[in-house]
Amino acid sequence: LKYPAYAALHYPEPYDVERVQREVLDARTLLIEYRLGEERSFLWAVSKRECRMVALPGREEIARWVKRCRRAITSPPSSADAFDRYVYRAHRLYRLLLAPIEGTLARYERLIIVPDGILYHLPFEVLLTRRVTRETVHLPVLLVDHRISYAPSASVLGLMQREWRRADRRKAFIAYADPVLTTTPRRPGTSDHTTRSVGHPQRPHASHETMSLDGELVDITRHLYGERGMNLEPIPYTRVEVESIARLFPRKATRIYLGRAATESAVKREKLHARCVHFATHGFIDERIPARSGLVFSLVDEGNEDGVLQMDEVFNLDLDADLVVLSACRSGLGTLVKGEGLIGLTRAFLYAGARSLVVSLWSVRDASTADFMRRFYQYLRAGCGRAEALRRAKLAMMNSDIPAYRFPYFWAPFILIDRPTGQDGTPSLHQ
Length: 431
What we know:
By secondary structure, the chain is an alpha/beta fold. The protein contains 14 helices and 20 strands. The chain has two domains: 4-160, Nucleotidyltransferase, domain 5 (2-Layer Sandwich), CATH 3.30.420; 171-417, Rossmann fold. α12 crosses α13. The two termini are 40 Å apart. The model is unreliable at 198-220 (pLDDT under 50).
């Protein structure tokens, strides 16, 4: 095989329960793995000392409620009815997926979710452990009592336990943001409604003219815009996001690439040896050909790159990072393969040298994401582990002075893929 380490991540040998208990779990962690079937589905709850299996409804019923819940949370609330739809569906899903092990859940601080099928599209953090009303001040979401992370499979989680060689000299923070996508990029403040998204085709023949750069159409942009009708809007708040995060670290410990400098060539040239590597840009998933999935960088590139870092190019990055953040649209979704789950950018970055990732499950607003990421890194710098920092950032958004942030659309899309080691899987960033 050309890439044996990638093959190990892509098609790992199955882990038996005893090996998971021995090599993966600690006393405070519960692994919850799902397998969806036609007539019945199954849940395995595995802790350090016990394993329990529970039968669940079939795939069709679970899928129906996941789709309903996603419809309720993947766009900003337009009315009070939107909140009512969310709380009803999120509690219904909790009853379907987790209530059968409610007593077991209460004994563990950290949950590692191994989804199956459509469950990869669900952030379990949004599930409500009890019914609420519009007057309920503090929502009883699963996030309140648990640190939550995800894994593509128990086998991949085991591979993530391996020891990594760390570079002797590493930056604290390397980031890429605000790529040049048009000749007239908007600056922060012109609109706070831009989403970090590469949309789905909306019409058969989308216009190419809006993507003209210096009088010429970039090949990859023509492909994205013409063949799939995707929308590459400027995302100016990513600059605010990255600059505010960089200020949390000593200047010599950071390196950031903004605007025209945020190119695919710059990513490939850089030794991405850092505690955190942060990509604040558009991302897209090709459900038909996963290898074409990627992140979009500045389309004005002095090198010979097309501006899209595709999955097969990620494998060859010089990457050594405790955490990679894909602050981009739908970066966590990939093609679903029977028996092994998620194939997407997450696995590519794991292979390349990321020990953990934060990825998104739906298109996210530019301005609110900048706010969310700033909070997340503040908690990391304060000494929280990755799972706890993400948990606190989400709770802080929910309880902020901005009423809309209470709704999951703003805080729920970002999930953590990580392993259960140390305090909760991270060297601290406060050093």
